[in-house]
Amino acid sequence: MSEIAPAEPWLVREVGTPDEQDGALLQGESIFALANGHVGLRGNLEEPHLGGMPGTFLNSLFEERDLHYPEEGYGFPERTQTVVNGPNGKRISLFVDGERFDLRTGEVRRHERVLDLRAGTLTREVEWVSPGGVVVSLRTERLVSFVRPSVAALRYSVRAEAELRVESDLVVDEELPSPREDDPRTSAVLPDPFEPVAHDDDKLVCRTRRSELSVVAAVAHTGAEGTVSSTPELIRWTATGRGEITFEKFLSYHWPADDQVVADRDAAARDGFDTLAAEQRDYLDDFWAGADVEVDGDPDIQQAVRFGLFHVLQAGAQAGLHPIPAKGLTGNGYDGHTLWDTEAYVLRTLTYTHPGCVGPALKWRHNTLGRARDRARELGLDGAAFPWRTIGGPECSGYWPAGTAALHVNADIADAVLRYHAATGDDEFMREAGHELLAETAKLWTSVAYFDDRGVAHIAGVTGPDEYTALMDDNIYTNLMAQQNLRAAGIEPRLADCLSIPYAEGREVHEQAAGFTRLPEWDFTDHDYPLMLSHHYLNLYRKQVVKQADLVLAMMVRPDAFTLDEKRRNFAYYEARTVRDSSLSAPIQAVLAAELGHLRLAHDYLAEAALLDLRGGGESGGDGLHIAACAGAWIALVMGFGGLRDHGGELSFGPRLPPDLKRLAFHLHWRGASMCVTVTRDSVTYTSDGDVTFRHEGREVEVRAGEELKFAIDQLEDLPAPPSPRPPRRHAIWAEGQGEQ
Amino acid sequence: MSEIAPAEPWLVREVGTPDEQDGALLQGESIFALANGHVGLRGNLEEPHLGGMPGTFLNSLFEERDLHYPEEGYGFPERTQTVVNGPNGKRISLFVDGERFDLRTGEVRRHERVLDLRAGTLTREVEWVSPGGVVVSLRTERLVSFVRPSVAALRYSVRAEAELRVESDLVVDEELPSPREDDPRTSAVLPDPFEPVAHDDDKLVCRTRRSELSVVAAVAHTGAEGTVSSTPELIRWTATGRGEITFEKFLSYHWPADDQVVADRDAAARDGFDTLAAEQRDYLDDFWAGADVEVDGDPDIQQAVRFGLFHVLQAGAQAGLHPIPAKGLTGNGYDGHTLWDTEAYVLRTLTYTHPGCVGPALKWRHNTLGRARDRARELGLDGAAFPWRTIGGPECSGYWPAGTAALHVNADIADAVLRYHAATGDDEFMREAGHELLAETAKLWTSVAYFDDRGVAHIAGVTGPDEYTALMDDNIYTNLMAQQNLRAAGIEPRLADCLSIPYAEGREVHEQAAGFTRLPEWDFTDHDYPLMLSHHYLNLYRKQVVKQADLVLAMMVRPDAFTLDEKRRNFAYYEARTVRDSSLSAPIQAVLAAELGHLRLAHDYLAEAALLDLRGGGESGGDGLHIAACAGAWIALVMGFGGLRDHGGELSFGPRLPPDLKRLAFHLHWRGASMCVTVTRDSVTYTSDGDVTFRHEGREVEVRAGEELKFAIDQLEDLPAPPSPRPPRRHAIWAEGQGEQ
């Protein structure tokens, strides 16, 4: 039994032996994953452990597999791409007087793992008494270098009064557990995706069998003498000794395979673990200086928002011209696919906290434009139709009503382009990729939208963010985002102006889609969440039940399209119908709750988003962290309590604190400057290392470099939460682990 | 090369060797299939022939197979049922001086097959010169007995100046060709579905491996001496001789396996082929006396409507308490499933032409009520939700937007119940099954429909007959049929009265579904039919393009719901948007075209329906005949030019002939009487063997038993066809085989 220890500001500590039975083993593997966006090492224990899911994820290294449908349809993707477990260099077996070090045997006196968010390292300390009675002390350290994209390193130290033998492996196609079959959200696990190509005693070359992607993994051990054996699938370095063995292990991965891998590995081995760790800390010091969020009054949130930012950074930092998957490189969930939340959540947060990796991430989309154009043609549309889920660019969604039909992904990409450009002024990016992305996505809308005979334009039969209400007409989020897309591209301005924004007269609320408010109400006495596991889509799709923020998301990203009164009425109406069966929901509801003065509710939603993986219990995040929810913690704090808005390229703030927070300070990047916004219960202070013009509570102001701009805050009365069928847990209860309210 | 010879009134003749390359082999196997609703022998050549699809179909003998989805969903069927090829007793191999009789070798001097629609037999005559130069004359005859449900019989006669050897088989799990993978409409072909259970020299017992359904097939040969060998999968009777071999072969099938099979076979063998053939003719004489349709002026239609009626009879006659599949027992298309068109088309025709098999067919539905109730619960609904496609009762549809969402199948079943009861007065059926079917289907509508706050009731997010416009609100066919269903069951009359019947004000037409007429128009310059093979559903579902009659069907089955002017405007509007990518479309368009005075157009649609399989060319019907289109030929003639309507339990006629027909006479059963309606260009004459009250042109009249009731007809002017994106071929051109207009 293990648990995540009480919150520490910069550390995530697990105490006890992670148990596969309660999901803590898988969950811990995700929480303690290390990655740099290019290479990811899942937080597997060094020794092979039944029930865990080994993961060495190399961004965009995938295998293909066929998709079969009971009833085929034109344009249904015929194959998909699935992330594979790359050559595993984390695996280290230990034998003590010939007995295997296995936590399921003997006695574990102490087992602790610590993820250091400033150091960027994972440390593990174990004190174990073998079945034979030998006391063993083990300490391992790990990092995946933010500075050297191809490199990971381990330090391993074991002490025991016994004969010790360590087998340190680099292994291809290790055995994987079978996937669950009872949940539509689980992913494929491909056995033996690689065929060996070449090997020697310090590197393995292999290739995925069908997608034919080559990878080379190189390994070096220093600090102890060992012997090496190798087969096409395994390099094993074996060291023996009495009393103590300590060594460092260096890994480098290149794909497609090239010779540079040796130089990278050798440089790392030569410089040593301590040097790599020092570089790592320097890199992270820089990151935190420009991105940290300080939260006084809620240690859990303080820890969680940093944990979230750290994992968002790990997902994106060195992704370069590759996608940022929904699970980052922490697990094989969603088959390793990238979905719309990369642009709508992850890049939103990275734009302000680590903008350097946002341009490449959007250029990756641009690099797949050819496929997106082809897909648009296949769908009978113009411009580009980006995939709902993919690794390399092709549409990999096997259920089109909640995949291909969610055309809003195209407007989300355009929105991310606009945001990135506004926040950085990166004109070169716009020339190389941004303008074309805007134009091609806008063209899509010109072909999918149409005018009725009253001159109103519509987008019919698409699916918005809410996957419980599919194939409706005039989804408000889609229409508002398409409108912005068209305007930004300067294409068919009349179409943009005429797009229907459905509004229910009598009820005086906007409609998530045309006719939504006239659909039958859901019977919320049913509490069997997620509803999709016990209710047919035929039942869900035409009821007033909302899986996740949709119209509420629209009110966050298009605040200009709603009056404050409308927002208030809309929020109350949809709050009563939203069940948050998606982790993408809570952060957005937090933002709007904060804006509308439901401050404790906002705090609770913030907690739901921020603590989901870290303290979610069960198997939440077992197949990889919810990276968008990690980004969502930042969104909830900065856009919620900081009131940051960025519509139309303008930066604005409207800070307000919930009753239980004393102070919130956040750093962000804006057009080359590093700003800090400090919110207390009675004031907000803006500082920056460069001049920045922005709006404070609607008024244009400027903070000058090195100066301080301070405003008093009127204490807002906390408005009670509107009725919800599934109120969030109180954040205090999360923290105390007392379960549901 | 083979072709169907010019039309003969009672015969369907194929001349030439059917070629697998042009689809004629498969098509001929369907056209010449013999069946009685219980046992079906596909029209395979006796000798094994590469490229054909062997078929011995035993109603409801199916195997199960798993359905896999790229993305699973709650309530998606986990397995399906697939018709299997049962033990084949048609296979007879011939050797001439040791050379195999194979039409692909040697020289075929003559090859002719004749289906005799009055005799109920298939005769084949071949004159073949072997590669060795021997002239061989072969004649085979076949029947599947309408009188003895389990029995089929063959007579085989070969003459040649040579040593002859005949191997006559009963074979289980013969080799089958692979299915095509490029068309979503193709079916699974299960290899080796059976495991042997027992065998001796005159019967084989086997069992499907997974569904565990047992079958016993018994065989006997008479008329020649032979030797028999048997294995678990094959009984082979071998006869040799010089100059001539003639024998008769008798087959009997029982499933589940029982001992009665031997008695059935022995009785058939004792009575002999000629006796079986005489019984067959008597049975068919009775059938035709009460069901024949005479068409003067169009020999192709004359032949085709009898061909269609014959196959409808073959599909239903002895089906008993089993489903009538969409392909009857003529092929494995749609996996052998029964869909809504059984009730909406096939039972409609059978109700008036052979009512004795309609009650059992509906009792079969009643027998599956438990499963339908369970399915309704699974969908969150009350009452019964019958499957979109099934053999044994469970939902087997793997694409729910055009399957489970088509809830109208439930109202179609209710409609068939009402029609059958009105036409027969079978009150016992109503007590045993009918009333419960009406009540349970009506309950479904009470749970799926809901009231808006203006007091209008809606059924949202369902799919009507038109599969190119899925998951819309208030599909007019569904709502009108649900309304009738509710009223007939006497359940929630207010709901029935309040159901929305969508109407487009300005355009002054009814809407197929709410908002349909405001959807974008389809670009009909594309002629690549069927559209579903080259257009994504995302593109199709929200355009004004209609796969098949939907609103037009509603105007046929609910004539009371529309004024004549509305029908006229609606017909023109939807005619311009309907592409007839379903064979279910043309017969209904024929009916409405006739009613509205587009008489030549009606004739053309009649031809499209009637000639589809018989003269469709290509591979139309290769995997089984379109039994609903066979029924549709009758519908087009009798409901179109005869003007038969039966809404509300009243029989009515409004006869009119198209310019090219001189006379139409049709027989039908009504409440125990056998009526005949004879329409000429200037009069209609009603006769009956019992008193029948009905409406003629809206006026209530009565024909007394043995008397003649005659009315003059006003010659109607043929109105020009409204514009259509895909006008039907002219019937004259079908007949002349000159291809598209």
Automatic annotation (TrEMBL), chains A, B:
Organism domain of life: Bacteria
Domain Glycoside hydrolase family 65 central catalytic stretches: 306-489, 498-634
Annotated ranges, domain Glycoside hydrolase family 65 N-terminal: 27-255
Molecular function as annotated in GO: hydrolase activity
Pfam family, one: Glyco_hydro_65C
Keyword Protease attributed: no
Residues covered by region (Disordered): 174-194, 714-741
Keywords, sorted A to Z: Glycosidase, Hydrolase
Domain Glycoside hydrolase family 65 C-terminal: 644-703
Family according to the record: Belongs to the glycosyl hydrolase 65 family.
Protein name according to UniProt: Family 65 glycosyl hydrolase
